[in-house]
User: Which sequence fits this backbone?
């Protein structure tokens, strides 16, 4: 039961919600794929039993993926069915009510261990792009879910995916959708985002995909597309697919689910969990060199850079760690968060704990000192707490299995 203060707050927010500034979250990790929410006016403290729940919805299929939002519509993937018969389902919801507007089967999904859907939809130019755990890349009409084109990248480029299938979220760049099949004939490919027709492909050898969504940015004075494969991290020219450099990077499971993070003009931060720690490379003249390493790690979702501080979360040292990008030293650590997903918000962050589904509001000052301000536990869903929280238009959306909820975390502008 919500306490009286929460009920009063909910009534106020309901009356004034129409005045909030609209925003979008069209990609995995946010509008700029950096885990940063820039909305102002968010509550600095939540009621004792959590922010007001605006709505909760049951989804037709379960998943670990994060919702994507554009305008008044929320898009989310899930999967259903038994083992090899498992299918991927894309659902479109009204973001203000949670009503399901339509659902569409987008192809075969991963049906072995940890079988729930992992791909977060990418929204671009009226289309929705998803990559299934079996390697099916599909483009759908955002209005009604009609499949515009679909390609089984694993079948086309030679299947050699790793233990848990594929888990990338499509990257759209300059009319191209990037995919990393990690195949026997192509490691990474660029397809026409409107037609699915191949534009370029690059093969770097026997390197399976490693669940990584690429990073695009300026490094070493040039624009680069950077991603992990089974045993290496590699930079490419995004226009041609030409391989620029590669650096051996291998942990005990050959799993690297986190996008590389550019932290300086020539600096690249890497972390992939499983006790392998963190590493910072210097890339000059297409030549990588190790600058520093430490024992902090990140199991999934990846790291973020804000105001000259690296944020990362994993089993070592435990909780969310704030690092100095110059030498990897730990500035502070939110141990209570445990292993969690999170997003950065002005003045702090919101985390979602893998262990018990606890959602925490944390403050971070200008020097990087941080502390937990408020927390509550999700009352819905099942399976692992692996989805990422997002905040759009003053509302916090969190998915857990086959359920999703929306919480009001912003008062109306005066």
Assistant:
């Amino acid at each position: 039961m919500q306490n009286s203060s929460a009920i009063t707050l909910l009534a106020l927010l309901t009356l004034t919600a129409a005045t909030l500034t609209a925003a979008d979250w069209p990609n995995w990790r946010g509008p700029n794929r950096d885990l940063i929410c820039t909305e102002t006016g968010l509550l600095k403290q939540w009621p004792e039993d959590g922010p007001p729940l605006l709505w909760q919805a049951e989804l037709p299929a379960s998943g670990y993926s994060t919702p994507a939002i554009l305008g008044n519509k929320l898009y989310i993937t899930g999967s259903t069915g038994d083992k090899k018969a498992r299918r991927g389902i894309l659902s479109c919801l009204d973001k203000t009510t949670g009503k399901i507007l339509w659902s569409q089967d987008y192809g075969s999904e991963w049906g072995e261990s940890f079988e729930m859907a992992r791909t977060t939809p990418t929204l671009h130019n009226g289309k929705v792009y998803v990559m299934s755990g079996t390697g099916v890349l599909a483009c759908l009409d955002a209005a009604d879910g009609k499949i515009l084109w679909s390609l089984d990248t694993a079948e086309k480029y030679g299947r050699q995916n790793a233990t848990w299938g594929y888990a990338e979220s499509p990257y759209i760049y300059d009319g191209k959708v990037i995919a990393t099949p990690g195949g026997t004939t192509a490691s990474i490919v660029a397809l026409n985002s409107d037609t699915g027709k191949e534009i370029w492909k690059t093969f770097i050898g026997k390197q399976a995909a490693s669940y990584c969504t690429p990073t695009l940015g300026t490094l070493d004075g040039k624009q680069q597309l950077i991603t992990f494969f089974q045993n290496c991290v590699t930079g490419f020219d995004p226009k041609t697919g030409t391989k620029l450099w590669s650096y051996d990077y291998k942990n005990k499971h050959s799993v690297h689910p986190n996008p590389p993070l550019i932290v300086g003009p020539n600096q690249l931060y890497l972390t992939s969990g499983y006790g392998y720690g963190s590493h910072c490379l210097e890339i000059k003249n297409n030549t990588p060199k190790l600058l520093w390493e430490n024992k902090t790690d990140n199991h999934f979702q990846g790291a973020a850079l804000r105001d000259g501080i690296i944020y990362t979360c994993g089993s070592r040292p435990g909780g969310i760690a704030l690092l100095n990008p110059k030498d990897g030293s730990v500035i502070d650590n939110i141990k209570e968060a445990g292993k969690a997903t999170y997003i950065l918000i002005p003045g702090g962050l919101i985390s979602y704990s893998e262990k018990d589904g606890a959602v925490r509001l944390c403050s971070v000052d200008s020097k990087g000192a941080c502390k937990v301000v408020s927390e509550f536990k999700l009352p819905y869903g099942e399976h692992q707490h692996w989805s990422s929280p997002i905040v759009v238009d003053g509302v916090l959306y969190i998915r857990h299995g086959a359920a999703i909820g929306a919480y009001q975390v912003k008062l109306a502008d005066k």
About this structure: The chain is about 5% helix and 45% strand. The two ends are 29 Å apart (CA to CA).
